[in-house]
Amino acid sequence: MDRRRPRSFYPLAAFFALFLLFLYGPTLTIAILSFQGPTGGLTFPMRGVSLHWFHDLFQQQAVGDIWGSFRRSFALGLMVMVTTVVVSVMGGLAFRKRFAGSGVLFYLVVTALVIPSILISLGVGLIFNQTGLDVHWSTSGFGAQLTWTLPFGLLIMFAVFNRFDKSYEEAARDLGASPWQTIAHVVLPIIAPSLIGVALFGFTLSYDEFARTLLTAGSRNTLPLEIYGMTTNVTTPVIFALGTLTTLFSFLVIGVFLTTVWALNRRRARAGSDAGKGMV
Amino acid sequence: MAALLKNRHLTGWLLASPLAAVLAFFLVLPILMIVVVSFWGATEFSIYPAFQFDNYHFLLTSPVTLQVFLNTFKYALVTWALTLGIGFTVAYFLAFHVRSQTWQIALFLLCTIPFWTSNIIRMISWIPFLGRNGLANSTLISWEVIDEPLEWLLFSDFSVILAFVHLYTLFMVVPIFNTMMRIDRSLIEAANDAGATGFQILTNVIIPLCKPGIMIGSIFVVTLVMGDFITVRFMSGSQSANVGRLISNDIALLQYPSAAATAVILLVTVLMVIGTLLRFVDIRKEL
Amino acid sequence: MTQATKTGLSRRTLLTGAAAGVAASAFPAPMIWAQNIKDITLRQFGTGVSNLNEVAQKVKEELGFTLEMTALDSDAVTQRAATQPKSFDIADIEYWICKKIWPTGNLQAMDTSKIANYDKIVGIFRSGKLTPESTIAQGTAPHSVGFTSGPGGKDFVAEESGWMTLIPTIYNADTLGIRPDLIGRPIESWTELLNPEFKGKASILDISSIGIMDAAMVCEAMGEIAYGDKGNMTREEIDKTMAIFTEAKKAGQFRAFWKTFDESVNLMASGEVVIQSMWSPAITAVKSRGIPCVYQPLKEGYRSWGGGIGLSANLSGLALDAAYEYINWYLSGWVGGFLMRQGYYSAVPETSKDFMSENEWGYWFEGKPATDTITNPQGQPMAQAGDVRDGGSFHDRMGAVACWNAVMDENQYMVRKWNEFIAA
């Protein structure tokens, strides 16, 4: 296909460039504003240039506790990530064969994906309230977030198993491996890179989740709830500094995941197998 | 034991049990709870079990309800059309005009990166851009395109939809790109050889083959917009309402039963819309 | 629910150690108390107005125990106080919220004989009268929900019974905030909020129970509605008020609605809005950025509010003692001075005087021209020498209250109508 580029390439490329500008414009706006001087506000024009607000971010705020909420969000993200990976793999394996009720379960997964988040928040909150349990980010918040991350994890697993070459399993079975051995030594290693994708989704969806955690986090905020609180409570560019830092942190997380995938693929390439490649 | 393990129903349920348990407790039970509570009564600060239709009665007779539902559909429809147009074009460019796979992956990642940062921060970052004295207005004024700042840029339907498109276009790009990458290139070659123009290839080959991706993207965008309450609050300056805001207002005022009644109607509406969309696509096969 | 955060302070200070030592030599019993109280953690929640981390820090330094602060918006505060009594020890709430919460029994009555400065609390919170000649304004006046019949009481009594529902801490008189530089003419009446001159540049707050009062002040000033009691409207009065405001909204009068005072700061500072309902610290915040902003006194008078501290019914024993200790400390002046420097008033102004400079006291309380630069607690300049506080002295301002924030008998109806107005 090494022909001349069609004429439509150029307008489309321009469109794509505009799209990227649209995507990144606001992020850049707040990145710029976060470098305002000490008397700066939330809007243009800039009043001086300084690192004041990044410094301020590490000081005690008049109200709120940014770093506590960051630690909670990070812990919750890891909890959700591990659970999502384990439960999605098990679910993905289960759905490879039809079983009684699998259709119903599948529709429940779709419902979990499309139900407006605030309904989960409201419903879980109501259940905990009426049964006298305390809502807490690590119990009710954790469960509410799983209804959002599990469907994603499971859909990725569907995609993985749709492309999975069953002859590897058959070969293992022919060689006398038990079903458990087949899964542990053949299936899991092959799908491992995609599990990183599931983990990445699990972590970031949880880390950014807002609506489902709103009524289920209890008295201690997660980071998105804290940010939401700050939008109504904070009048200084410190919130933009926080936004810039969290964006950088997200980049860091993605970077770590991508490096892992890359390293895994290299090892795999050296080992001479290309099964499961390209599914992240 | 070995015989038991061979029973696919049993192994299926064993493997799916954690998933089923999570969904039962955090999806099915909450929905049931909402349905039950929607018939309850409320005082100013508490709710009490009852079986009454007051909440539905108030909801269905208030002139505002219809208006709010129409508003919700309006946002969903306009956002859907825009994200579809933009998302398809971007995916098309990536899949068919970028030739090296490395570039394809790099540009695709570039599109997805903003998705990993806080939605709320991405949303509020529009405010200094669109405000009366914001970047957009001051730039336009300095270029002498306009004399007076444009008021409708912020706290309007325009800004709400702009934020929606900004937040959710990616949900359209990814599934469409995914299906486009799976289109057998020889089909396009064949169409080309048969004398089809680029436009004919697009409408007769590519778009029909992309339908599943388009449907999956549409499901995401429509449900996200219909269930939203926070974007509308921020970007309209609290001045417009959609169903999600109706619910969150009621929650804030402790009127849980009336929030639950609105939630039930919203859920039914969303499921009906999604049910219709699902008739056109088998999600499991198309991934 | 929305903005919930905590500060835990674990710093042990010399001061408490020294205090414990002194106590040990003089009174053997309080020594145990002073030792144990350090392990006590009291969980306080309330609006961002007074739930400030600085206060928690000072408590740790001076009293030795830990105060965990959670800041929420008014709706969330009401919700938590009503539905999650186990989640707090101290509720920092407004009097109109108290009217809703008290009958639930989630708070306990406080013995005024244990309050050292009880006799110095201003009249507004006791008899309802600022001076013996004052008339009592409409709405939920603090004294009317400030007392209950005795320990365990769930009712309100009119006279000073010796058992308080809330210990008053903070209050103010609210009015409209304006940008004089963008308006360029005197503003004298509440009617200006709906003046078409400010089309697309006005705002009102979206907290139904307070917003409706501002709306009523406007409608009454316009001569459109004559209210029996703005603090307790009839259904027709609510309908008429909302009709006038819905019409204005549809005509594009409002730029946005705000829910927390910081949103109002952003609206005002960025020039999106030039006239709006506003709270005192918001004005202070706008001014500290060097942007002109006036808390405009209006001829119809102020809409006023008051807040206080309530104790959870679950508090007992040592924790209850610590809570009383905290209340007494709260009224002893430091917090009062801290709050008055932000433009609020303290319930016991005379104790706060010791914690303010003469210049600050003159400017904030007596309405005198500043003799030197006035700064906010963070040290940013608020006013220059010669400036006078908007509205004048404490007695000028609190003496011109037209209405208190209130909960009406028709509250649920009003809330639904308000929601319709927001959605319309």
Supply the number of helical segments of chain A.
Answer: 11
Strand content of chain A: under 5%
What's the story with the biggest beta sheet of chain B? 2 strands, antiparallel
How many strand elements of chain A?
A: 0
CATH superfamily of chain B: MetI-like
Alpha-carbon distance between the termini of chain A? 26 Å
CATH architecture level-2 label of chain B: Orthogonal Bundle
Give the SSE order of chain B as H and E letters.
Answer: HHEEHHHHHHHHHHHHH
**Average pLDDT taken over every residue of chain A:** 82
How large is the share of residues in beta strands of chain B? under 5%
What is the H/E order of chain A? Answer: HHHHHHHHHHH
CATH level-3 fold name of chain A = MetI-like fold
Q: CA-to-CA gap between the ends of chain B?
A: 34 Å
Q: Which SSEs are present, and which pair or pack?
A:
The complex is a heterotrimer of chains A (280), B (287) and C (424).
Chain A lengths: L8 H25 L18 H6 L8 H29 L7 H13 L2 H14 L6 H26 L4 H8 L4 H30 L2 H4 L8 H11 L4 H34 L9
Helix pairs in contact in A: 1-11, 3-6, 3-8, 3-10, 4-6, 5-6, 6-8, 7-8, 8-11
Chain B lengths: L1 H5 L1 H30 L3 E2 L4 E2 L5 H8 L1 H35 L3 H12 L6 H6 L1 H5 L4 H8 L14 H25 L3 H9 L4 H30 L2 H6 L7 H10 L3 H23 L4 H4 L1
Chain C lengths: L13 H13 L1 H10 L3 E7 L5 H10 L3 E7 L1 H10 L6 E5 H7 L5 E2 L1 E2 L51 E2 L2 E12 L1 H4 L18 E4 L2 H15 L12 H16 L3 E5 L2 H9 L5 E4 L1 H8 L6 E3 L5 E11 L4 H14 L3 H7 L4 E2 L2 H4 L5 H7 L9 E2 L5 E3 L10 H5 L2 E4 L6 H13 L1
Parallel strand pairs in C: 1-2, 1-3, 8-9, 8-10, 12-16
Antiparallel strand pairs in C: 3-12, 4-12, 5-6, 7-10, 7-11, 7-12, 7-13, 14-15
Helix pairs in contact in C: 1-2, 7-8, 8-16, 9-10
